Amino acid sequence: MKSDKTTTADLSAQIAKSIRDQILSGALLADDRLPSEAELADQFSVSRPTVREALKRLAAQSLIRTERGAFGGAFVRRLSYGEAQTQNITTSTLLLSMNDVRFDVACEARYAMERACTVLAAKRRTGAHLAAMRAEITRQATPGLSDETFCASDVALHRALVDSAGNPVLSYQLAGAVEAMQPLMNMITFTARSRERIVDLHTRLTDALEARDAAQADTVLADLQAYTLDLGQGVMAARAARREKHHADSPVEG
Amino acid sequence: MKSDKTTTADLSAQIAKSIRDQILSGALLADDRLPSEAELADQFSVSRPTVREALKRLAAQSLIRTERGAFGGAFVRRLSYGEAQTQNITTSTLLLSMNDVRFDVACEARYAMERACTVLAAKRRTGAHLAAMRAEITRQATPGLSDETFCASDVALHRALVDSAGNPVLSYQLAGAVEAMQPLMNMITFTARSRERIVDLHTRLTDALEARDAAQADTVLADLQAYTLDLGQGVMAARAARREKHHADSPVEG
DNA sequence: CCGATAGAAATGCCAGACAATTAAATGCCT
DNA sequence: AGGCATTTAATTGTCTGGCATTTCTATCGG
């Protein structure tokens, strides 16, 4: 008759939840100091190791930071865009890798979101954004680049595109979608010819932004999506085959 | 001379990172069992509490689950869309609430992303999606609804819109953006007239989807964004005033 | 053949102690 | 009186050892 699942959960999880709720509700503000581990242990009537486990849980979510020494302790952490992005990327990457998400699905989601910022980007892009994008394009044209380096540069270019929309919240959200795709992209072998094609599309994309032509940027992104999808077909097939081998139950589909 | 920051970090953080890397790299697959706490303690030459702290960190990120009993232990967790979404929402909510993000910025990001899925939604929406949206519209037209309930229904409608794009990755990413806005939206007092206007826009949005008219859906979303922004101006002003009072250094603006 | 029971393996939790770190307080010398 | 070294106190980090609880397995008895 254990209807309430929260009461059955670990003590450290309960304590973590309790403190997390206080942070989310605003009862604990950024840079506030939590009671010491000993005091928390008293308050919750548990041992210090249990309190510590709870605090580590919160630390793993970047909700608190701890400082050692006399007036140290656990402090509510002001979550920065960078940290939030890092966590978002970790979660997204894991989600994609653990669920055998199809390349085309992830690709579609990514480009749908990227195309969401063409209008803003065309309006707000600065010279610095364009310069960053052109720098990546130059790098991508360098002969002898490894596939990983090429992909990393691709991600950097797309992040510059997203940033050029001038909306930090949008950047934060889209960074997860773009970066999480990298492991999938890294599986692709980029031939010299495909790189040439991509560099060309990237150039046209940057040109469109420079001309503040949102429609053109959108068109180029659509082309890029189609081409990426094309390149990824091999990856898709390989993943599908692997899944089939794992499951070995549905030899449907020719 | 502590140049390397990772070596200075907590042992539990190091161990957590080590295991996390193994999961991310694929060395540990979903449902794989980790060594027992005692074995891990041996391997890393630390005590069991330290190992436990590391495991709690991973548990907080939904990377592992633990089972008690004879053949229990820590197992690599297959991250589901739902869990990933929950984490994403938590992080996004926290980010917005802790950084005094301006209402218009968050709103712009949210609608930019939502508009990203109008094309797909118009193509793939099913009767179930439309029904879900209309059900929320009906609820929103109910007199005497609290602002919170109205907002919650608003979120539900927008999630149905997002889901109608038929791309789980897109749904996952956008859920964070939409849900994270709710605390900000909850601050708005919705008058009877503003509700009427919103219900009207929602209806037109659903109609557009039913007609598979992506352009019209996009237009309605733009209108909705403009109206939401308008309603949020009061919130923005209040937040700005609070910030000024906190800082109390720039008495500009009359 | 089935059910009860004991054993084993693992996590969950606790108590107490010591080490390491850091800021403040103190004291000393100039 | 002021600046520097030293002590002190508070706090987190870690370890040892143990007990409680849960859950699967295997054994034993009916």
Element layout with pairings:
2 copies of one chain form a homodimer.
Chain A: H1 5-8, H2 11-25, H3 37-44, H4 48-60, E1 64-67, E2 73-76, H5 81-98, H6 103-115, H7 118-124, H8 127-140, H9 147-163, H10 168-180, H11 182-186, H12 192-210, H13 214-247
Antiparallel strand pairs in A: 1-2
Helix pairs in contact in A: 2-4, 3-4, 5-10, 6-13, 7-13, 8-9, 8-12, 9-10, 12-13
Chain A binds a DNA duplex (30 and 30 nucleotides) through residues 10-12, 36-38, 46-50, 52-53, 66-74.
Keywords:
elongated; homodimer; two-stranded antiparallel sheet; disordered C terminus; 2 strands; disordered N terminus; DNA-binding; 254 residues; mainly alpha
Give the overall average pLDDT of chain A.
89
Query: What characterizes the major β-sheet of chain A?
Result: 2 strands, antiparallel
* Oligomer category: homodimer
The poorly predicted ranges of chain A are 1-7, 249-254
Task: Please report the two chains with the greatest interface, counting residues with C-beta closer than 8 angstroms to the partner's C-beta.
Answer: A-B, 57 and 57 residues
Structural class of chain A: mainly alpha
The count of strands of chain A amounts to: 2
Radius of gyration of chain A (Å): 23 Å
Helix content of chain A: over 70%
As laid out across the biggest beta sheet of chain A, the strand order is 1-2
| Order of helical and strand elements of chain A | HHHHEEHHHHHHHHH
Q: What is the 3D shape of chain A?
A: elongated
